[in-house]
Specification:
Strand content: 15-25%
Structural class: alpha+beta
Number of helices: 11
Order of helices and strands: EEHHHHEEHHEHHHEEHEEHEEEE
Largest sheet: 4 strands, mixed
Number of strands: 13
Shape: elongated
Helix content: 25-40%
Length: 347
C-alpha cells in the first residue's frame, strides 16, 4: 500500500468587497465580502438550508476566515501567476463581482496547474493540480461550510484529512484491532484513486445531502475546470485534482461509501484517505473479504483496485502510513518501517 505521510497542506482561500479591520494585534486588513448575512448557527440539516447553503459559503465571515487561512498557508501561484501577496489588492478591486458571479451561477473556475512531486517510491511522482489563489479561497470557503455537515456522516474508522484526526490515531486504531485478535489483513491499494474518481458518482453522493443545486453546480465546475500541463490544456472528465482545499473533503465523501459498506458487513478497518486496511482473524477470511468487496468497489463506486499492490496476509507483513507491526514478547508493537522493511524505531 502506498504511503500517505506527505499530507499535502492544501492551501489558499479568498475575499473581496468591503474591508473590515482585523483585531489590532494582527495589524492587517482582511477582505470581507459584503454579502447578506444569514444565521450564524452551525446548521447541519441541509433540508433546512435548501437555497441558503451558497449564501452561507459566500457569507462575509466565512470568506474572511478562508482568506486568512490562504494567507497563512501561502503557496504557489496558479496558471494566472497571481501570487498570495497580490491577492488582497486583487480582491479589493474584484471581490464584489466575484461573489455576485458565484451567487448567480456565472463564476467559472480556472484550470489547475499540473505539477509533480516525488513519491516515497524511487523514481515515481505524484501529480498535483494547483488552483489559482482565488479559486483556492473559494474552495476553502466551500470546505469550511460542508465539513461540519459531512463530519456527522463519516465513519469513526476514517482518519485522513479530518479535524482532530491524524495518522497517529489511525495507527492506534490498528493496534486495537490487532490486540483484539484480528491479526490478518487485507492491505488495499486503489489504483490512481484521485485521477480515476467517477465524477457522476461523486455528484450523486453529494446530492443526497446537499439540497442547494447551486452548490452542486459550483463543485461540478471545479471538477470539470481542466488542467494545464506544459502550456497545454486538458479537459478533466474524471478524477479529483489533488492540490486544492476541497479535494480531501471530496475524497472522504466518496470513500465514505466504502466505509459504510464495510461497516454494514461488520468489518474492522482503518482508512486514511485512500489507504485502507481491513482486519480479520485468518488468512482465508482475508482472501474471502477481498474477493467479496471487490465487486462493490469496481461496480458500485467505479474505482479500480491495484492488483499488484493489494495483498492479504499476516499483519507483520504490511506497512501502513509508514508504520509496521511486529510481535515483541507477548504483545504487538508499532515501528517505523524503512525501505528495508525492518523495524527501526519502537513506538
Amino acid at each position: 500500500m502506498k504511503v500517505t505521510e506527505d499530507e499535502i497542506k492544501y492551501r489558499q482561500l479568498h475575499t473581496g468587497g468591503c474591508l473590515q479591520k482585523v483585531p489590532a494585534e494582527q495589524g492587517e486588513y482582511a477582505g470581507a465580502y459584503a454579502s447578506s448575512r444569514i444565521t450564524e448557527n452551525n446548521i447541519t440539516d441541509t433540508n433546512l438550508l435548501e437555497d441558503q447553503l451558497l449564501e452561507k459559503i459566500t457569507d462575509r465571515d466565512n470568506m474572511n476566515r478562508a482568506f486568512k487561512k490562504v494567507k497563512k498557508n501561502k503557496g504557489a501561484a496558479g496558471i494566472d501567476d497571481l501570487g498570495i501577496d497580490e491577492l488582497l489588492d486583487h480582491l479589493k478591486e474584484n471581490g464584489k463581482d466575484l461573489v455576485e458571479a458565484i451567487q448567480v451561477g456565472k463564476y467559472r473556475p480556472k484550470p489547475v496547474k499540473r505539477v509533480e512531486i516525488p513519491k516515497e517510491e524511487k523514481g515515481k511522482t505524484r501529480k498535483l493540480g494547483i488552483p489559482t489563489v482565488v479559486d483556492r479561497v473559494v474552495q476553502q470557503a466551500i470546505a469550511q461550510v460542508l465539513t461540519p455537515i459531512f463530519e456527522e456522516q463519516f465513519s469513526d474508522n476514517s482518519f485522513g484529512f479530518r479535524p482532530g484526526r491524524s495518522a497517529h490515531g489511525a495507527m492506534k486504531r490498528c493496534k486495537e484491532f490487532i490486540d483484539d485478535g484480528y491479526k490478518y489483513v487485507v492491505d488495499m491499494d486503489l489504483e490512481k484513486y484521485f485521477d480515476t474518481v467517477n465524477q457522476s458518482k461523486l455528484i450523486e453522493v453529494l446530492s443526497r445531502t446537499i439540497k442547494d443545486g447551486r452548490v452542486i453546480s459550483l463543485i461540478h465546475k471545479y471538477l470539470r475546470a481542466g488542467v494545464v500541463e506544459k502550456h497545454t490544456f486538458r479537459e478533466t472528465g474524471h478524477g479529483v485534482a489533488q492540490g486544492g482545499p476541497l479535494s480531501p473533503l471530496l475524497s472522504n465523501i466518496m470513500l465514505n461509501e466504502l466505509d459504510m459498506e464495510l461497516e454494514k458487513r461488520g468489518h474492522r478497518f482503518v482508512r486514511y484517505a485512500d489507504d485502507l486496511t481491513i482486519f480479520v482473524r485468518s488468512q482465508k477470511s482475508a482472501e474471502r473479504t477481498l474477493r467479496n468487496i471487490h465487486p462493490f468497489i469496481e461496480n458500485k463506486l467505479f474505482l479500480k483496485i491495484n492488483e499488484e499492490k493489494t495483498a492479504t496476509g499476516y499483519v507483520g507483513s504490511i506497512k501502513f502510513l509508514g508504520f509496521g507491526f511486529y510481535l515483541y514478547k507477548t504483545s504487538y508493537k508499532m515501528s517505523i518501517r524503512r525501505q528495508c522493511s525492518c523495524p527501526s524505531v519502537l513506538l
